[in-house]
């Protein structure tokens, strides 16, 4: 019987896969060979496996030309190892596959032949075979980039700041201050003259902010595909005036999603803006994450809340099958080790930080 | 010229629309700073814009956008005198989006009038402002229960507001028994200068008399100069003019000063207060000064000016004692709200929660707590996300206390215990 998987569950699985994928990439990145002997092989889903094996055999033959004996044998054994593993595939997996194989330096003068197959979360588009001293990871890393960005801009009459929202991350870009006179400097000037000078200064400031922020947004590579919209924040009435006037580049201006209250107009204001734009941003990574965190914290302060934190307590709850949502930091790099003595049968299980 | 009166900085604070600007306008009118014909002119203009009752508020709300909306956005300073004191009054905005401006105003004040509407009683920003004023070092307050005309000068309404306000101010450490609660109508002028026949049941002092009952603030002139910059102006023919209030020490003409964290130096060429040149500035003086050797973009709001030989301390990190006033969830390591300290607004990160304290006794309740929630007191280590001047509260309390804001509210307040100073030269 096929069971319907709820959308929320799919999203959580996505998040978990992403985390695993990121971790796998980090590990691969650290690996090094001594010569140009690490093989990276990218196979798109529509590529015939027998074409690949044919090319690999060809490469194997050409290895005879490699001068260094050590490199030659290393490359040859790597190719054999890949060929052996490809035997198990009739066709490439749904998104294609990336194969990494070679003699990895493991310290001292030793190397170790490793072969790793990665099934990426997104489709591999081009076939490639490369031999180098490190693994070629760029095509996989590009999959971690966010598909969309939002522009953020906060403004009042004193200052403004702009930046990007990428997935779960706010990236402040730059800000500027105004020379708009406040009430303090009113001094001896007549009120009409003062008001006129002030309006000019405000206009100049909006222009400067509009130009510099537009420039920063338009500089985003693939702006037209990636730039999903602009959120503008600040106290009233500045943000309204700014958004209505012709201060932003028209391509940026037509992408304004909405105006939201924010009391700060510095870097921190960007965060306030994102917080207050919750509804407009529903479904964007940072919002889902925030929702989970808020729920966690709310449970945490309750007398008999349903939240657990810290490895020990979380592990106990997992073992009891009492966990509905598990939150892990993206930066968590720990491994579970079982140490056993072959002689006396002594066993110990430990969690260790992996550097 | 008569002998100079002692000077005090007075902040007028409270919830939006409770009548702060009207109260300041009324005080300025009753003390002769603003004349009748000016009010008449404002009244006519205000009426033509459908803002008929705002003539007093317009004395302070001079910006176009303020007058159009009938709210205060930016703080404004004005001078007036009572028999005993010369006051600089700062009218603060009540709107929640402008609390950051209110903090700037309140951080420069020695005393405050808390205006609360008799029709509404204490509201959200009444609470926040009361808490902030205590946090920012204001020790003397007057509670003005305003709009008594709108409640028919009802003693019952007055008592209701007074009770609520007593509880509120007591909760942050002010003493209700030593605080005047004055029923006023800023708009009609009751109990401002003379006792009002409309409130025969009220036996306390009127507003202007209560101002004279304030105690003179101490003058920390024996401490090193600390002058947090509130604004920087460029004036043609003069150059760069930083503006701010002297918190401690003395600034003299010819003095060599250093600005931190900007890390620039210069020599004080002239000092000006209320458009008059003065030879030196004392604690409490709000001054603009011209410095030889600094350029327009060298200094900015939040920088602090001090003597070259004893410059303000820039913190790598600092340890502080905090109390969590309110928080919808919890505060844990990595939390990065905005810290308001003197005139700076800087995001700072909690890098460790060291001890949880019993809020009453100050005894340590828990070492390295995992998180803090509303009502908790704790000692924490904090790291500014960009360079920030902050001092030990024991040595320079004026620069050692801060308010913490996030999600549009004040979530905590604290005192600096220790500073790990950053090497600046
Ligand atoms: N009836 C009555 N109305 C008052 C009184 N004082 C102020 N008001 C009215 O309340 C409204 C707001 O007054 P403001 O003085 O601008 O209030 P505020 O506290 O300065 O407001 P913000 O600066 O925006 O926080 C105006 O319409 C005033 O006329 C009073 O004593 N009686
Ligand atoms: Mg006002």
Automatic annotation (TrEMBL), chain B:
<dbReference type="InterPro" id="IPR054696">
    <property type="entry name" value="GTP-eEF1A_C"/>
</dbReference>
<dbReference type="InterPro" id="IPR009000">
    <property type="entry name" value="Transl_B-barrel_sf"/>
</dbReference>
<dbReference type="InterPro" id="IPR027417">
    <property type="entry name" value="P-loop_NTPase"/>
</dbReference>
<dbReference type="InterPro" id="IPR004161">
    <property type="entry name" value="EFTu-like_2"/>
</dbReference>
<dbReference type="InterPro" id="IPR000795">
    <property type="entry name" value="T_Tr_GTP-bd_dom"/>
</dbReference>
<keyword id="KW-0460">Magnesium</keyword>
<keyword id="KW-0342">GTP-binding</keyword>
<feature type="binding site">
    <location>
        <begin position="14"/>
        <end position="21"/>
    </location>
    <ligand>
        <name>GTP</name>
    </ligand>
</feature>
<feature type="binding site">
    <location>
        <position position="21"/>
    </location>
    <ligand>
        <name>Mg(2+)</name>
    </ligand>
</feature>
<dbReference type="InterPro" id="IPR005225">
    <property type="entry name" value="Small_GTP-bd"/>
</dbReference>
<keyword id="KW-0547">Nucleotide-binding</keyword>
<keyword id="KW-0479">Metal-binding</keyword>
<dbReference type="GO" id="GO:0003746">
    <property type="term" value="F:translation elongation factor activity"/>
</dbReference>
<dbReference type="Pfam" id="PF00009">
    <property type="entry name" value="GTP_EFTU"/>
</dbReference>
<dbReference type="Pfam" id="PF22594">
    <property type="entry name" value="GTP-eEF1A_C"/>
</dbReference>
<feature type="domain" description="Tr-type G">
    <location>
        <begin position="5"/>
        <end position="221"/>
    </location>
</feature>
<dbReference type="Pfam" id="PF03144">
    <property type="entry name" value="GTP_EFTU_D2"/>
</dbReference>
<protein>
    <recommendedName>
        <fullName>Elongation factor 1-alpha</fullName>
        <ecNumber>3.6.5.3</ecNumber>
    </recommendedName>
</protein>
<keyword id="KW-0648">Protein biosynthesis</keyword>
<feature type="binding site">
    <location>
        <begin position="91"/>
        <end position="95"/>
    </location>
    <ligand>
        <name>GTP</name>
    </ligand>
</feature>
<comment type="similarity">
    <text>Belongs to the TRAFAC class translation factor GTPase superfamily. Classic translation factor GTPase family. EF-Tu/EF-1A subfamily.</text>
</comment>
<dbReference type="InterPro" id="IPR031157">
    <property type="entry name" value="G_TR_CS"/>
</dbReference>
<feature type="binding site">
    <location>
        <begin position="146"/>
        <end position="149"/>
    </location>
    <ligand>
        <name>GTP</name>
    </ligand>
</feature>
<dbReference type="InterPro" id="IPR009001">
    <property type="entry name" value="Transl_elong_EF1A/Init_IF2_C"/>
</dbReference>
<keyword id="KW-0378">Hydrolase</keyword>
<dbReference type="InterPro" id="IPR004539">
    <property type="entry name" value="Transl_elong_EF1A_euk/arc"/>
</dbReference>
<dbReference type="InterPro" id="IPR050100">
    <property type="entry name" value="TRAFAC_GTPase_members"/>
</dbReference>
<keyword id="KW-0251">Elongation factor</keyword>
<comment type="function">
    <text>GTP hydrolase that promotes the GTP-dependent binding of aminoacyl-tRNA to the A-site of ribosomes during protein biosynthesis.</text>
</comment>
<keyword id="KW-0963">Cytoplasm</keyword>
